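User: Okay, second chain of the day. Same drill as before: sequence in, structure tokens out.
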Amino acid sequence: MTTRVRLATGICLVPEHNPLILAKVVASLDRLAKGRFALGVGIGWSAEEFRALGIPFARRAQRTREYIDVMRKLWRPGVARHHGELIRFDEAGSFPKPDQGEKVPVIFGGESEPALRRVAECGDGWYGFNLDPLMARQKIARLAELLSENGRALSDVEVIVAPYNRRIAVDDLARYRDLGVSEVVLLANLPSDTARATARVEQFARDWVEPACRL
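Assistant: Same drill. Structure tokens below.
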């Protein structure tokens, strides 16, 4: 029904999944979305949740990095092999491949220094949460420094920001844009009544989407 709207996870806790199975799920979603899927990634924060799943909480960041490497190999043409610290296999094939191949965007969430480093080292994008333009400016400036250290530029990654419960005005959309933000995620509660929900969405579009289209 659309040609530009994307489908994305917000977010997938990659270290809680088997990477070979997750690679297949992502590939299927990207095929169904006709190459418009993005994998939003987090490393997790709840030790209790990891314990319930029987997965070590320690070194979950390293686990995430290796799992993403495994998935990108499986998304390439042909079969793949991987001999890492956590995963080992030979001649593994996963079909069908994503429409985007190994270029399925991997967008890391998180505002901490380690999270920004993950983006700079191996991410295709960054999702900053609960940030107004002033807070976003500081994080994006640091991200640009880390990208430069890795021989990359801010233009090499997609920058997405959600103000969440930070109050912003329509004029702030231009401020985000000037910082290099390509997408602003706005959250809204909808009433259960269908007619009222439709009216709310239409008003939301007039208040935010139409001004954004004029930028």
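Residues 24 and 95 are 7 Å apart (CA to CA).

User: Thanks, on to the next one.
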